[in-house]
């Protein structure tokens, strides 16, 4: 598969899979939340996915919250830097980059994504948001929620993200498709990294 990262959001995403099929998505369940806050309810672009990861919750949490190490296990994240110090917490900020391929309406570019953490439930949920800006491409705001629940066989990891902005809203189906590719890739990379570390 060819990795693309069209419109990967600050919250979100870290890259996109350029596959030929559109990711499947079931009827919309209730939005994910972290400490009572969810994605942007008015956003036209949204995607949600989940997977059971056969690894300890502590391993999965460490991978997801150690944002400066994302490039080590997410090929679509080319850089990531914390803008503050200490554990990831409310008001933490980080800046990361991801390449974006050319499309019919946007040039190839690298998105610089500045994320601000709004909610953290220790080892249970994360919620962050922020803009993604590249030459010729802008996502005004992306809101990303992650939930982590221990289940038989591992940890159920669920994620949901929304995007807003005139440029991405000009083609909602394509933007939603790329957001879906990005979240599916991120979750697959997280699963692979966590399960390869063993118990």
Automatic annotation (TrEMBL):
InterPro entries: Polyketide_cyclase/dehydratase, START-like_dom_sf
Gene3D superfamilies: 3.30.530.20
Keywords on record: Signal
Protein name stated in the entry: Putative membrane protein
Pfam name, any one: Polyketide_cyc2
Signal peptide coordinates: 1-26
Organism listed in the record: Kribbella italica
Taxonomic superkingdom: Bacteria
């Amino acid at each position: 598969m060819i990795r693309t990262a069209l419109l990967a959001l600050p919250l979100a995403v870290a890259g996109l899979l350029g596959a030929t099929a559109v990711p499947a998505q079931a009827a919309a369940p209730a939005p994910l939340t972290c400490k009572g806050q969810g994605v942007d309810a008015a956003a036209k672009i949204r995607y949600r996915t989940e997977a059971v990861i056969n690894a300890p919750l502590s391993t999965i949490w460490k991978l997801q919250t150690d944002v400066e190490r994302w490039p080590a296990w997410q090929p679509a994240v080319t850089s990531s830097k914390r803008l503050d110090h200490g554990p990831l917490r409310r008001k933490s900020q980080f800046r990361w980059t991801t390449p974006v391929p050319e499309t019919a309406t946007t040039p190839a570019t690298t998105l610089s994504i500045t994320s601000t953490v709004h909610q953290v439930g220790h080892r249970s949920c994360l919620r962050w948001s922020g803009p993604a800006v590249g030459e010729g491409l802008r996502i005004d705001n992306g809101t990303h929620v992650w939930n982590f629940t221990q289940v038989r066989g591992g940890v159920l990891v669920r994620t949901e993200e929304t995007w807003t902005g005139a440029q991405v809203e000009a083609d909602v189906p394509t933007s939603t498709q790329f957001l879906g590719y990005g979240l599916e890739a991120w979750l697959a990379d997280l699963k692979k990294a966590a399960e390869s570390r063993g118990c």
